[in-house]
Structure formats: structure tokens, C-alpha cells
Amino acid sequence: MDGIKDLDWSKLGFSYHKTDYRYISRWKDGQWDDGKLVTDNKLKISEASTALHYGQQCFEGMKAYRTKEGSIQLFRADQNALRMQNSCDRLLMPKVPVEKFLDACYQVVKANEKFVPPYGTGATLYLRPFVIGVGDNLGVRSAPEFIFSIFVSPVGPYFKGGFKPVDFITTDYDRAAPKGTGAAKIGGNYSASLLPHRQAKDKGYADCIYLDPKTHSKIEEVGAANFFAITKDDVFVTPKSDSILPSITKYSLLHVAEEYLGLEAKETDIYIDELDKYKEAGACGTAAVITPIGSITHKGEKHVFYSEEEVGPITQKLYDSLYGIQTGDIEAPEGWIFKVK
Ligand SMILES: Cc1ncc(COP(=O)(O)O)c(C=O)c1O
């Protein structure tokens, strides 16, 4: 693709479009270099890199939003920086300082400004920061060198069709172990999810729902997103578990539900055989934003929440508040918005 002339913002899906610049910084002998923007979207690394053999890599997912006034902003970018530090710690990789992470985000978004979709199109600029272990190495150990890079791509909705209810099915597979790496954003969790995802798609579902790996009785995650539901007496609930990714969207929604919608909001166990307790449900995440869940099929039985066609009123309000905050239409809690331009 050449620049932006082929892009129809309102028709974008969640796919890769090469942009002009990416940020890259290298770690060697105990320190990160200053980092720079480059145009080449190919990485040249040792064939013996730990990222290729032992999965020593982690990543983040975040978005830059265009406001009505034309400025550009990031949503809770410091939280992505901190979560990436946790992922690095878990896989014995050097941490990227928060200031360096934020500076890299600003640089790469500014350099690719023409790819930040206009306000009102529903599209955004997705940022994909990552850290990989590189350099010549054979045994199972931490790499001698590392790369921290960020590329960006304009994206539309993660689930086809945008903001309308979609159907999910539970899987018997686990994406993470009880004391494994589920809380870190690392490739291994995602490669483990490819097969169950494909099986769900082949059966006509948007994605699969993972149950807790210890007892398979509680909802953990919805594909690459967290889960939330609204009880019949209007409580916003979302699973509490050490093996799910601590979603920045989910923690934001806990706050939005309480402070903007006046609901009680809590993390708790959500049992798969107690879905009757909930009148609405959704998937939430940077990519998914809020995706209403029309139904969940478990062991051959289909449970419909609010409706398979219409979005529930509380899910709609949560979406309007969250997206309004992210795009600058609604005042954000202090410290949530990072102005790029
Ligand atoms: C497995 C998984 N769970 C949850 C989420 C949501 O996290 P966040 O809200 O920080 O994007 C993601 C990423 O979008 C994810 O990949």
C-alpha cells in the first residue's frame, strides 16, 4: 500500500497496513540505546534469537484517537508501559522505562500522523509496542540482546460488523495455566489460542470463551478480550483471576460504571452455569472496545443475554462513555489522557 490514498477509513477492519515509520531501540551490555525512527518494516535478527525458539517476547496494544478539534491523544498509555514492564519481568527481559515508552509512542504517532483516522470515522491508529529477545544463543536462557520497537497501523473494528451483538462458544482448551503466564501479554498465550479460535470460527462463532484453567467452571476471557456482565439488579461484574490479562479497558470500565453510570461495580467469580443471573454481557479491550455478547453456547446449550440483534441499554451507555472519553468528547478522569498533538 502506498500511503493513505487507498484507505477508506469507514471500511477498515482490524488488519495490518504498512505505515511510513516505526520506532526501534536496542538493548545491549545492560542498557537501551536512544532509539530512532526507521522506514524499513523488516527486522533482521539472528536465526538463534530466543524470541524465535523460546517465546521470549512480549507486546502491547493501544490506540491513538483523533478528537473533534483534530488533536491526537492516547488513552492510559502509562498503564500499557507498566503492563509491558510486568511482562518483561515475567520473561526475564529488560524493562523499558515508562518515559522511554511514552516518548517512543509520541514519536511514532507524530511521524505517522497522516495515518491517524479522522474523528467520527470509528477508525483509530493502533500501536503495537513489543520487546523481543535477539542475538546468537542456543540453550534455554535469556537472550544476550533485546529489541524494543513500535509499529502502527490504522484499524477499524476488531469483530466484523462493529458495534452489534456477537455470539461466542466456550472451549475446553486453556490459553494459560493457573500459575502460568496468563497475566502477561506474551505471544505464547496467543499461539495457544489459535486452535480454539479457529474451531470457534469454523462453527460460526466470533471467538471462544476461556474458562478458568483449574476448575473449568468460571468465565475467564473472551478470545483476546476481557469479559463483563450486568446482573439483573444492575451490578457491573467482571472476572477476578490471576490467569487473565489485566485489561486496561476493564479497569477503566469498572471506574466508568461506578463514577459515570452510578452502578455498583466489582471483580468477582462468574460461573458458566449461572448465566441466568445476567441481563447483559460484553467483551472489552483496546481492540474490541466494547463488543456486546448476544449469546454464549456452552456444552451444546445456547444462552441469550439481552438480545442477539440489539445492544442492551447499559452496554450502550458504557460504550458511549468509554469511547467519548477516549476521543475527547467526554471529560476523562485525571491522568487518563496523553496528548500527542
Ligand atoms: C487476552 C486479552 N485479554 C484482554 C485484553 C484487553 O486488554 P486491554 O483492555 O488492555 O486492551 C487483551 C487485549 O486487547 C487481550 O489480548
What does this structure look like?
Strands 1, 2, 3, 4, 5, 6, 7, 8 and 18 form a nine-stranded antiparallel sheet that branches. Strands 9-10-11-12-15-16 form a six-stranded mixed β-barrel. A hairpin with a 3-residue loop joins β12 and β13. It is of the alpha+beta class and 341 residues long. Helix content is 22%, strand content 30%. It is built from six helices and 18 strands. The two termini are 26 Å apart. The structure holds pyridoxal-5'-phosphate (PLP).
How is this fold's topology laid out?
Blueprint: E1 22-28, E2 31-32, E3 36-38, H1 50-53, E4 57-59, E5 62-66, E6 72-75, H2 77-90, H3 98-111, E7 124-134, E8 145-155, E9 166-170, H4 187-202, E10 207-211, E11 219-222, E12 225-231, E13 235-239, H5 248-259, E14 264-268, E15 278-285, E16 289-298, E17 301-304, H6 313-326, E18 337-339
Pyridoxal-5'-phosphate (PLP) binds next to strand 12 and helix 5.
